[in-house]
Amino acid sequence: MADNVARNLGSRVGCHCWGTDATSTGALPTMAEVGCRWVRATRPMQMDVVSTGPRAYNFADQGEGSIDLAIANGMSIMGILDARWGNETLFNTLPYASPIWEHLDLWEDFVAATVRHYRDRVKYWEIINEPPFFWWYPTPEGVQIPEVNPVLQRAPIWAYVELLKASARAIRATDPEAKIVLGSGFGDGLFLKRIYELDGRDAFDVVSVHYLSCKHPRDFARPYRVVRDLMAAHGDAHKPLWDTENGPFGAVIGQAVRTPEEYEGLFNVYRHCFAHEFGLDRYFWFNPVTTVAGGEHATSYRLADGSLTPPYQAMATLARFVGEGALLASAHPGEEAHAYVFDGPQGPVTLLWATAPADYSLGGPVEAWSYLGTPTPLPARLTGAPLILAGNVLDRLDVTVRGPRETVVAPRRAIPPDVPGAVVPHGAPADAAAWAAIPYLATRDDVPVVMPDDHFVAVPSSVTADVQLAWDADALYLRVRTYDDTPSPNGLVQLALHDSDPAVTEWAFFYNAYGLINLYASPHGALCLRFEYLDPLAYPAGIMPTATLTTDPLPDGLRFTARLPWAELGPSRPGGHEPFLLMFTFNRADNMLAVPPDDHAEEWAHNFNDTFIVKAPSLQRWVKFTR
After folding, report:
1. CATH class given for the domain over 413-625
2. Which CATH architecture has domain 5-320?
């Protein structure tokens, strides 16, 4: 069977398919219909799914049909070679090959057998999903997994590099035409940097990243450039860069949305434009099967009347008007209006929207459609909803931006309007007596224990806490006393801080904060770790170089005392736009994955994201900083 690669090499658009899930597989024809030319196949190439014993495999009953269905619909495949979906915690279904990096002979056999089986159908192979989250649970036979404080240990990055090299040997020996996609890192570039340092450069042909921001071109550009600059510094400027999981999160800029589906539809248009403008070679829409009641991967890609839901209709509109057309020109008048001219299948078209209030003129009538493909009269002002305009209108486009950037909350993550307010006193506490005089921002009676959403990642358990804050011109001071009925010297306090610019209401999600701050009591000592999403160039992910943290074990918990310089917290400062929104989580050490002793702690700064994503913040406060 053909693999369709030759005809699809020019396409940037991919999607996902959980090949052992009937609803996800059933969506493949619709995905192809709306313009997705590539599929990131998951379960059919998973070692623990297809293995029936050491060096024995059953592909036919484990998702192979989804591969053939995608190819029959004109699509090409990138398969993920994985085991336990990159997650060796809690379940040990292959005791003879766990952890996989200690059984590279069996892993190489699996890789060779899989590539041999799919050689005529699959030419691109990704090695492990999100290897920065590469972990295992080495449970001896007959040992019960504890519910509290299990000895979880991240695989060291060198182990992934050895597995990557073993995979490359097996793939290239079995199918010299195949291409190897590096397991994805993130926009901080830290994981990729270590791959290069560990001499992994020759073991992959494509670099992969996850979740480049698509709210604004500048937001997209920052992490994209971090990764691209790192590739160039190591002689890999020529290699393709793919975003192999990209889906909507956070706030939409410039457009009030009524439903999550409408929000995702807008996001799909933004992403396609940014991918062309910055040279992202391919992106995979994750997950194009909208979750509804009935299971993790249940689908609602069509409405009751049979029409496409907004995310799918937006993709169909892109396929209709833009297709695989080249980007002819782009412009950003006033930095907040965004125009992209594509050579579409029916001739040039301009996609136009704004991320701030903007007046515009086109110098005459222009045929226009909405981002959902319906004919529309030209609106009085530009909004975050893209217009599709016939022809190249850049020469006659006149835009006047009338105000600052507008960010409108996504409908799923709004902060309740009854979040309490508080005042943070001025002055740096010098000792315990000074802290004793500072009022509590919250006490353990105000802090609920928050249960996580259902997720394959096991996150630390929530605990209650007493919280105190103070500030001066140089730093934010924080003291947290956690309460843990299973005391441990390890724990985690997380803080996200939002500037309350009155024109910006982006309180939806920590990705819209100026950083996720992790105060980590760990085997490495007390660490202040930052994961920055919005501006990793100005605020690098990793250890905060001048922040300080001490932790004191207590009979029933921990006391964290931190000094966090404003220069490392982000661009916000007291006396600017107040109140601030502060969001906290407080966690015990169970399911805390330790950093291997031969890796760098900063490589794992982003690994605490799941704690903040999978469960809601346990404390939220609007705060003002007063003298």
Report:
1. mainly beta
2. Alpha-Beta Barrel (3.20)
